[in-house]
């Protein structure tokens, strides 16, 4: 399990108890190991192994909640930079190590490209998990006051005494925390005075237990707080969740990034400026371009419509007209009559198939996906499904999401200063 590594995704947890000793490989330089949530190196893996069907349907159901959450963001509802990843954190996919405080306390952090700030459960938190950051043991920890400029960047700020307190309510759940600051070490890079939310209270079953690290473009994100160090540039390579014993990598900063890589332009959406929008202009199944209504792919800042790369969604979702067109073209190429379904997957087969490639065509860049990025197979090999689905059926379903299964075993490079996103094939494991 030696691979140089890298980080993207969502979550914090103290890791002193729970990591396999074989997994305690040191991060190096500005590169972090990235572990899949179900890997042997993750304390989040289910205590009782799930069947293949249970596993896939569970991830698909959590995807549904995430897609509805992302749709609410671009629809212009409550855009909040702290603790905004609530749906995602219920289903962290990839985690990285971080060290918080002085002396350092090791946490496992879920990374998420579609959210901005970080928060962690702190000692004394009511309703938090048992794994918390002990602020009393850090000599560099500070709580920010209401006068701090960052206090204007958190949701529903109030002044409880001298602390800047934020609150967020959603569904039957809520969180409350203090805006705080401490040293964070990523790989071997110390980042002094890093601003994050220190949770003091959580209620409801849907509250993420152990925190979030945002890799979006907002004012409290990792990119914004480390511009001097990482120049708003990072890349990640996500290991397949079929390889639970292996890790991928998160590479921070411009140093060591691939030179031979194709790029597409990053687009800005004022409704949700932290999301990584790109211009998807077509989709090819095999060698044939699929006939998709242009509106289904078009970037429209006024409605939030368009296509994003997202690390927290597992299976790629396309708005219904685009998905139906791609799915039908895929079925025609496979030429097997007995198409069945499994949960939200509507293109499944109980006999062996030869699947065509699918190519996402972006401005300036094509990404062709082989079978390993397109198909999920049951453990026993009895069912094979196309690992894509239609976006949730609601009024805000305007987003196409290029998800992490389709990104696996690719290096995805986010170059914000040059407003571009690059993709290159790479064996992440």
TrEMBL record:
Might you name a Gene Ontology BP term for this protein?
A: proteolysis
Q: Does the keyword S-adenosyl-L-methionine apply?
A: no
Give yes or no: UniProt keyword Iron-sulfur: no
Q: Which GO terms describe its molecular function?
A: aspartic-type endopeptidase activity
Q: Which UniProt keywords apply?
A: Aspartyl protease, Disulfide bond, Glycoprotein, Hydrolase, Protease, Signal
Pfam families assigned: TAXi_C, TAXi_N
Task: Note the SUPFAM superfamilies from the entry.
Answer: Acid proteases
What is the annotated signal peptide range for this record? 1-18
Q: Which superkingdom does the taxonomy of this entry point to? A: Eukaryota
Domain named Peptidase A1: residues: 94-424
Q: State the family named in the UniProt similarity comment for this chain.
A: Belongs to the peptidase A1 family.
Write down what this protein is called: Peptidase A1 domain-containing protein
Q: Which organism is it from?
A: Gossypium mustelinum
């Amino acid at each position: 399990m030696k691979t140089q590594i890298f980080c993207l995704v969502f979550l914090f947890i103290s890791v002193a108890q729970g990591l396999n000793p074989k997994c305690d490989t040191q991060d190096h330089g500005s590169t972090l190991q990235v572990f899949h949530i179900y890997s042997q190196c993750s304390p989040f893996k289910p205590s009782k192994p799930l069947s293949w069907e249970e596993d896939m349907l569970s991830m698909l159901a959590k995807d549904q909640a995430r897609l509805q959450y992302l749709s609410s963001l671009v629809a212009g509802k409550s855009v909040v930079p702290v603790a905004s990843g609530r749906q995602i954190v219920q289903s962290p996919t990839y985690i990285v190590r971080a060290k918080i405080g002085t002396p350092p306390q090791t946490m496992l952090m879920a990374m998420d490209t579609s959210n901005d700030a970080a928060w962690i459960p702190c000692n004394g938190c009511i309703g938090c998990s048992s794994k918390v950051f002990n602020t009393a043991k850090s000599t560099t920890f500070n709580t920010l006051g209401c006068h701090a400029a960052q206090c204007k960047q958190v949701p529903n700020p109030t002044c409880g005494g001298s602390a800047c307190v934020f609150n967020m309510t959603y569904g039957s759940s809520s969180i409350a925390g203090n805006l705080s600051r401490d040293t964070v070490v990523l790989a071997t890079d110390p980042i002094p005075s890093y601003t994050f939310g220190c949770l003091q209270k959580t209620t409801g079953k849907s509250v993420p237990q152990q925190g979030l690290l945002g890799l979006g473009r907002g004012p409290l994100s990792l990119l914004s707080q480390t511009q001097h160090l990482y120049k708003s540039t990072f890349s990640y390579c996500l290991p397949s969740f079929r390889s639970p014993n292996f890790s991928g990598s998160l590479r921070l900063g411009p140093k060591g990034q691939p030179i031979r890589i194709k790029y597409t332009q990053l687009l800005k959406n004022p409704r949700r400026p932290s999301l990584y929008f790109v211009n998807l202009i077509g989709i090819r199944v095999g060698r044939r371009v699929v006939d998709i209504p242009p509106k289904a792919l078009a970037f429209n800042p006024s409605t939030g419509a368009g296509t994003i790369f997202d690390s927290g969604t597992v299976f790629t979702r396309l708005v219904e007209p685009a998905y139906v067109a791609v799915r039908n073209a895929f079925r025609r190429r496979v030429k097997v009559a007995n198409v069945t379904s499994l949960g939200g997957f509507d293109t499944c087969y109980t006999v062996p198939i030869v699947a065509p490639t699918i190519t996402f065509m972006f401005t300036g860049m094509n990404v062709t996906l082989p079978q390993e990025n397109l198909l999920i197979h049951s453990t026993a090999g009895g069912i094979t499904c196309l690992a894509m689905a239609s976006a949730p059926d609601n009024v805000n379903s305007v987003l196409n999401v290029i998800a992490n299964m389709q990104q696996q075993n690719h290096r995805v490079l986010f170059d914000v200063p040059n407003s571009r996103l690059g993709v290159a094939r790479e064996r992440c494991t």
